[in-house]
Amino acid sequence: MPLADYPVFQLQLESSERIEELGSKAKFWVRLPDESSWLFKFGRPNTGEDWAEKLGAEVAELLGLPHAHVELAMFNEKHGSVSRSFRPKEFDLIHGNEILAGHVLGYDAAKEFGQSDHTFGRIISAFYSIFAEGPDRTEALTLLAGYLTLDAIIGNVDRHHENWGVLRSTSSETPGLQIAPTFDHASSLGRELRDEKRRDLLRQKRVADYVRKGCGGIYWKETDPNGANPLALATRAAKTHRSYFQRWLDRIKDIAPKELDLLVSKVPQDWMSPIAKEFAVAILSYTTEQLKKL
Predict the structure, then answer these.
(1) How far is 172 from 258, CA to CA, in rounded Å?
(2) Cα–Cα distance, 254 to 76 (Å, whole number)
(3) Whole-model pTM over 0.90
């Protein structure tokens, strides 16, 4: 019996609530029949941002990471994705740029791209400052390592300082601070390539070159010319902070290639071409094999 494709949500104009200003893509909040708020993002033309967003969430689920719940969606016959709000009532989402601006002298919170002060070491230091010593800090750093592992697996190059954060309670009755679920994974899995380019890379066996070429939003050192490659960053960070990464490295060893194939195969054919699926699977196969070597 063939497996069912991922569902596609059909959005109606009357369900829209408000425009979301943050970020570079057109988006708005909608209220769906389950009474929860979802953020709809239009997929930009000639990209696979919608299916990449969905697959990023599915890989996060496979790893056991807290993540934004994502579904494919259409609005006015245009493809996109919807992400359910993960912010509980009486909690604020504090983005990474706000956190680092409070801990790094002269940090430019408004500089989204090329922010070389957004380094792995400074993020770790900020977590040491905002989380009290103990299990909460350890879990927050472990989840952060999980997010970097996810980025390495899917080749997510968009972990800039507004694409991670913490949830802070606004109620004295439920005080607390926790790392927010991982979100915004659209810049991954070769989503920007045309099928002709994917076919060439597959035929020439250059998928590894493609994966290793990408520059992410987190720098290793502020003097580096570009953000670190996601796979290289996770590999290096796992060697210096092994205890935080160990859970995810162990989990990767248990993931069979067919599980990753299945996640990709469930994207509807009119959303993702066969060659795009083959290329995405090749990326997942390569990155997981590299991480298993750790």
Answers:
(1) 47
(2) 41
(3) yes
